[in-house]
Amino acid sequence: MYKNLAAALAAACFFVSPSFSQSAKAAADPLKIGFVYVAPITDAGWVRQHEEGRKAVEAALGGKVKTTFVENVPEGADAERVIRDLAQQGNKLIFTPSFGYMEPTLKVARDFPDVKFESITGYKNAPNVATANARYYQGRYLAGVAAGRMTKTNVAGFVAGFPIPEVLQGINAFTLGMRSVNPNAQVKVVWLDAWFDPPRERDAAMSLFNQDVDVIAFHTGSTAVMTAAQERGKMAVAYHSDMRKAAPDAQIVAVTHQWGGYYTQRAQAVLDGSWKPINVWGGVKEGMIRVGDFGPKVPKAVQEEVLARQQDIASGKLQVFRAVEDVRDNEGRLVIAKGLSLRDDQILSMNWLAEGVQGRIPR
Fold first, then answer.
1. CA–CA dist 318, 310 (Å, integer)
2. What percent of the chain has pLDDT over 70?
């Protein structure tokens, strides 16, 4: 379903606008672009990375665009209202970066066929709705390698938002990465049923630290887990952004998301009339996922190992969900037979937890 980012965007560049007058108008008036954020803009995290993407669009396209954003918009009815308001205000391109924005985006898109929408982490398309996501699990695997090398207790923690496939992919990839260098590693999971709730994120981290966890990862939207690790003298994997400012001693590595290139190219596609409702699922190779920003505790040899594996993922030599040996879930069922790889559709519908994960999927 998803296409290579570079190929999809390159193909889009060859489409020529059928109307000279339309192009002339685009040249005269800046393209109004709206962004909807599921949480407040903070110094680091999910929303921060999309805000950096918005700024990248402005920096690249200058006076050709005029951007605006609305922050801290809950998924559901509020999201529909905000998205609709942005369309009514004349925004011709609207980015909605949260999984729970998918259905509200589709609903508003039906009423505004001349507006282009980008459903980020969504998977349903429409004639004026494109979808894009990143292969976060690739970064999770690499972070797992670092965590597997750094742990002393062989127990990691994972503070998770919701049990959707994207989060399950991350937990499993992190566990597979850890166990690729440390077969005894275990990962304990706490579910929050929230993307952004700093007090509960912190409490979950503290609870895990009380259960022999000495390195922690998370799939939530704030820096609360990182600051908890800093406070307790533990280690943590930053997610979305480099979080060394929040946890200078605790951070061992960061999995960062890079949206600026994609957002800029999609805005340019609207400007030149080549926008199409493509499906993109890009990762390390496409520059949408990057692992680095190592903390001071990480030995040079571990850094080099992680970066070498990142290159292997970029080249295709390493595939996270390709089994060197049989892969089983944490209930003993075979999920990837030796020598086989999961197809994209299987990864996108993932509904199991890997061997080594302590916990269950909430139903």
1. 9
2. 93
